[in-house]
Design goal:
By secondary structure, the protein is an alpha/beta fold. It has 3 domains: 2-98, Elongation Factor Tu (Ef-tu), domain 3, CATH 2.40.30; 111-222, 3-Layer(aba) Sandwich (Rossmann fold), CATH 3.40.50.80; 225-265, Dihydroorotate dehydrogenase, electron transfer subunit (Dihydroorotate dehydrogenase B (pyrk subunit), domain 3), CATH 2.10.240. It contains 5 helices and 16 strands. It has helices at 78-84, 120-132, 155-159, 181-190, 202-214; strands at residues 2-15, 18-24, 37-42, 52-55, 58-62, 65-74, 91-98, 111-116, 141-146, 164-169, 176-177, 195-200, 219-223, 238-240, 248-250, 257-259. The longest helix is centred in the middle third of the chain and has 13 residues, at 120-132.
Length: 265
């Protein structure tokens, strides 16, 4: 892991309250795995005091050299409001890459990606990494859900890699009007994937894990949670393990990507 002062390359609106920021970084970040995250604070920041965790959304690579990374975020509070005000040339402080990433078996040819809202961020990084390895993704599918049309993000990032995309919204403004887990279960029942990877609200992940247990499908989930340190010191990001009820796993060290069989929902 590395800490550095990072120059803002761009900071652009994506949809509604969603933004994508590009940050210059050292070549050390080329080792980052999809699912890992950084801890970030603006250099002008006095409040909030602590850094904020953000999934790595993608790497910026030119001529095979990693020159930066992308973060997808939604403005929801004081920390992200400060981030939204950063301009190209401003400096932020980043620390990472941290945590565990997705581990896709080499023999997995049919992968189902499931995202709820901002949960799409690490999955775009994953599909990009698989694409850079020249893996055929034409038999893969992405299920992306949100409350409304503006919450459906990064569809083209999947499509350009040959992944078919199905969308759902709570209000019916785009795609099917239902929870994203409904079409997922229908498709899994018809054609089982080699693995399901997912990121989104805990309620969504709990439902997905129920589907994977019902149809005996391997599953990895990325947990979204607030963290104070990102290194296991504060113990504030605990999630309950399944096989050992007295043992809590910590999202920053044991995750944020977990095998679904490890977790108790």
């Amino acid at each position: 892991m590395f800490q550095q002062q990072s120059k803002v390359l761009f900071n652009e609106p994506v949809s509604d309250a969603y933004y994508k920021i590009g940050l210059a970084c050292s070549e050390h970040f080329s080792m980052a795995k999809a699912g890992q995250f950084i801890m970030l604070r603006t250099t002008r920041q006095t409040q909030p005091l602590l850094r904020r965790p953000f999934s790595i959304h993608n790497l910026i690579i030119n001529s095979g050299v990693t020159e930066g990374l992308e973060i997808l975020y939604k403005v929801v509070g004081q920390g992200t409001a400060l981030l939204e005000r950063q301009k190209p040339g401003d400096i932020v402080d980043i620390f990472g890459p941290l945590g565990s990433g997705f581990l896709i078996p080499r023999q997995a040819g049919r992968i189902y990606f499931v995202a709820g809202g901002i949960g799409v961020a690490p999955l775009v990084f994953l599909v990009s990494q698989l694409g850079r390895r020249n893996i055929d993704l034409s038999d893969c599918r992405a299920f992306i859900g949100g409350r409304k049309r503006e919450d459906l993000l990064c569809l083209d990032d999947f499509i350009q890699h040959g992944v078919s995309v199905q969308t759902t919204t709570d209000d019916g403004s785009a795609g099917d009007q239902c929870l994203v887990t409904h079409p997922l279960e229908d498709v899994v029942e018809q054609t089982k994937p080699d693995i399901i990877v997912a990121c989104g609200p805990m309620e969504m992940l709990a439902c997905i894990i129920g589907i994977t247990e019902k149809f005996d499908v391997p599953c990895q989930v990325s947990i979204e949670t607030m963290m104070a340190c990102g290194m296991g010191a504060c113990l504030g990001c605990a999630v309950e393990g399944r096989d050992q009820p007295d043992r809590y796993l910590h999202t920053c060290l044991d995750g944020p990507v977990f095998d679904a069989a490890e977790l108790k929902f």
